[in-house]
Amino acid sequence: MTTTGTTENTGSDTTEGGVAARLGAALAPFVGGELPVRLRAWDGSETGSTDGPLVVLNTPDAVRRLLWHPGELGAAQAYVTGELDVPEGDGWDLDKALTYAFAVAQERGLASGRPPVRAMVDAIRTGAGLGVLGRPPAAPASQARIKGRLHSLGRDRRSISHHYDLSNEFYSLILERNMAYSCGYHSSPDQPLDEAQDAKLSLVCTKLGLEPGKTFLDVGCGWGSLSLHAAEHFGARVVGVTIAAEQKKFIDERIRERGLEDLVEIRLQDYREVPERDHFDAVGSIEMGEHVGQKNYPTYAEVLRRSVKPGGRVLVQQMSRSGKWPGGGPFIESFIAPDMYMRPVGETVGMLEAGGLEVRDVHAMREHYVLTVAGWLERFRANRDRLVELMGEEVYRVWYLYLVGGAMAFRDGRMGVDQILMVRSGDGRHDVPAVRTF
Q: Is the pLDDT of residue 175 over 90?
């Protein structure tokens, strides 16, 4: 990835070793010793390990951001604006650099404890000497600014719009022809992404027992990949709901192109506003439950239960996460998916059961997501010029960091994704086979 920041001489240091050496000395107590990376400052000076990746501070604003927002958020802000860069080359790319940084942090035990007060005072003095103290730089233009009561109808619409209404063309350059923005089902690492998404959609429809004439509710239908697949390949009569206006516009056009007007209806509607009760033969919700919030999850489970007929099937595909950042961490929460909430899969299963659904199968798919994101990244890099033309360099960098970080999280087991198949069964009767057939 190319550097977008402009090298400045503001605050350049005239002492031996330049700005980089002074920053390296100030950072030593925070990183447990010698800098594990090769650091190049805005005055051209360098310090640190020649065995690590190169990190370039193009402007003093990068340091100023990190002083105001230490850790992930400040680093992400500096990266997406181009104030900080991790140039690719010499065997390094963003994935390898971040993987290396995680490994060093774990090896040095940097997650535990706080630096001594003296170290913090020295760091502030160094910052003052380099002229980097001052008011915080403005938040990047790509950072979400979502107001309103958490998970109110209005705030949820704004949060979803921030992520999904960039433009349909933007997503078409990253996703495959189905526009399936969720984990695929890969029979091998070499399987084309189109085929893996077809396999996932057919797997979902098969688990739900869809066939001609059956009615299906697609909750959080995205760009319609599952809704259209269920109608076109399984003959189901489908209602899909989304609160992203750009998505509905896209799906409606595809419905007309494929002549599916008699089988598919897409509503611009919040899941809480679905009026049908005891109506659908099957209900599906693919990677939408992460967006409803912890407090609203029982309501979400109840909507799934009440929408399906007694004995009907419900399938949720949902990401899982443990630890102190259920929203995915400061970067994801600030730039990608405001108000998202994830939990361990066992907790989600418990909440769905408490909502009156009997869990019949939990299918772990974490490794599949690594392959899915790899396919997205391949298309993302190949379409770089058009993506930058559409959305600008800053949004491109946001999404590059997002995709690389997401692939790492699934690869390293910090996140998972599962298909949870359930039935609405109060008396123990349903038609899900006792022997697994999928």
A: yes
Q: What is the pLDDT of residue 9?
A: 41
- How many of the other CB atoms lie within 10 Å of CB of 146? 14
pLDDT at 379 over 80: yes
User: Residue 402: which of 88, 101, 174, 63 has the closest Cα?
Assistant: 174
* One domain for residues 31 and 88: yes
Close Cβ partners of 173 (under 8 Å, ≥ 6 residues apart):
379, 380, 383, 386, 387, 390
- Mean pLDDT, residues 64-74: 90
User: Which domain does 117 fall in, by range?
Assistant: 18-130
Strand partners, 57: 84
Same domain membership, residue 249 and residue 318: yes
Mean pLDDT of the chain: 91
Q: Within its chain, how far is the Cα of 60 from the centroid?
A: 29
Q: What is the CATH number of the domain that holds 171?
A: 3.40.50.150
pTM of the model: 0.90
Q: Are strands 358-364 and 415-423 parallel, antiparallel or unpaired?
A: antiparallel
Counting the structural domains of the chain, the total is 2
Q: Which 8-state DSSP code applies to residue 137? A: P
Q: Which residues contact 341 (CB under 8 A, 6 or more apart)?
A: 290, 291, 292, 293, 294, 297, 326, 327
Asked if 82 and 181 sit in the same domain, the reply is: no
Q: How far apart are CA 136 and CA 212, in angstroms?
A: 59
